[in-house]
Amino acid sequence: MLENKENDSVDENPKSLKEEKDTKEINDFEDLENAEDFLDTQDIKEKKKILKMLKNKFVTGVISGVAITLIITFGSAYLYSYATGRYFVFKANNKMHVGNEILDKKSMDKINELRTYMDLYYYKDYDVKKVKNKMYTGIVEGLGDKYSTYYTKEEYKAFKQESSGEYCGIGTHVTQDPSDKSIKILKVYDDSPASKGGLKEGDVIVKVNNKDVANQELAKVAQRLRGKADTKVSIEVFRASENRNISVELIRKNLELPSVSYQVLNNNIGYISISEFQDKTDEQFKAAIEALKKQGVQGFIFDVRSNPGGMLTSVVNMLNNILPKGIVVYTKDKYGNKEVARSDGKNKLEYPITVLINGDSASASEIFAGAIKDYKYGTIIGEKSFGKGIVQSIFKLENGDAIKITTARYYTPNGHYIHGKGIKPDVEVKFNVQNQTAEYDINKDNQVQKAIEVLNEKINGK
């Protein structure tokens, strides 16, 4: 993650896996045949036709060009037909719940009451836009889902930018601990402002520009880390190894950071590290495989340790370059609709494979490792993964803001739902941090060395 995304599998095109479904069957309308209160101008025959349609189909999402839209108001639902240009009205009752009322009359009265007190008694003028954004943020937080977030237009723009791997910032890969909201640096990129300023992997960001970031959403903190090129940003981190806080001042730079790096180990093993799943990660991954093949490797290590996740489409494309023909992952939404992603088997990787995971391997990383494990197409090595089995989708709002909400559960090819459970490695190896010096040395990484050992046994037919 480039100073932004949480441990997410994100579908930024929620309709991409739903092309075959533009309607859903529903059970929310239990007594539609007895609904009355249609506009008096509609005859009985047309009323029954509309009721039958409502009972059988429900159009979801905001999709331009669809035939009907359901608009919920306080106590009534209005069905508008684009084909006829007419509204049909029926009142909700105890048996007909179309949706939950959030801004009902009592809620609106309370909001107006709060604003009245603020207008009359708050000791200075306040920014109405900020207050509204906090209100929108609070509505989403009311879901009680730590993975659902409201983005302002600026935050959404930054999210999109960083998903591409191009942005202006300090050059770190960070994640957020869901339990205490602490923000930890997972990677400091070479020749970046962060590297030159002395920041290290494992540092916990405490303040940005002298403002405490405790309990703030990662996207909000990321926005503070970013800025225009050649501008200054002060950062305070806590370094556990020295048990002290360290403050640095950095100059932001335009950066294009790769999410895939690779090298040859032991003269015959191709090692590919994947830091997160961005828009272009699948392209970088394919190029890395081809480059290592040309160097004559006989086996592969795919390292997704401390990879917090990212784009669902990216990981699916990558698995299509590894696995034989078949399901790589499937999702189910609240209505029970199942959407399946498959590998066509045309580019399957016919080499011995190992995958490295740890407790910070989450979401898309677990989709990656889980599919390879279910197909018995490689050996999973390391420590149990994080355990995030849900997918978020991002919906852009009319004014450019956006909402990211959890929309589905995902399942591995064999139907395993790993949320809260994680993926257990085939070969459990706890990382021995004592082997490492101040600078990370891959030759002293006991998990990597175990992967080399396992691959050599397969290569030699043992």
In short, what is this structure?
With 462 residues, the chain is an alpha+beta fold. The chain has helices spanning 44-56, 105-121, 128-141, 153-163, 193-196, 218-225, 281-294, 312-319, 364-374, 446-459, and strands at residues 9-11, 68-72, 76-81, 86-91, 149-151, 166-169, 172-176, 183-188, 204-208, 211-212, 232-239, 244-251, 253-256, 260-265, 269-274, 299-303, 310-311, 326-332, 338-343, 353-357, 379-382, 390-396, 402-411, 427-428. Helix 7 runs parallel beside helix 8 (312-319) and helix 8 packs parallel to helix 9.
List keywords for this structure.
globular, seven-stranded mixed sheet, 462 residues
How would you describe this structure to a colleague?
- The protein is α+β, with helices and mostly antiparallel strands and 462 residues long.
- Among the domains are: 32-91, no CATH class; 166-256, Pdz3 Domain.
- Helices cover 25% and strands 27% of the residues.
- The chain has ten helices and 24 strands.
- It has helices at 44-56, 105-121, 128-141, 153-163, 193-196, 218-225, 281-294, 312-319, 364-374, 446-459, and strands at residues 9-11, 68-72, 76-81, 86-91, 149-151, 166-169, 172-176, 183-188, 204-208, 211-212, 232-239, 244-251, 253-256, 260-265, 269-274, 299-303, 310-311, 326-332, 338-343, 353-357, 379-382, 390-396, 402-411, 427-428.
- The strands form five sheets. Strands 1, 5, 17, 18, 19, 22 and 23 form a seven-stranded mixed β-sheet that branches.
- Strand 2 and strand 3 form a beta hairpin.
- Helix 7 runs parallel beside helix 8 and helix 8 packs parallel to helix 9 (364-374).
- It is globular and about 80 Å long.
- 35% of the residues are buried.
- The model is unreliable at 1-7, 13-42 and 54-99 (pLDDT under 50).
- Keywords: Hydrolase, Membrane, Protease, Serine protease, Transmembrane, Transmembrane helix.
- Belongs to the peptidase S41A family.
- The chain crosses the membrane at residues 58-80.
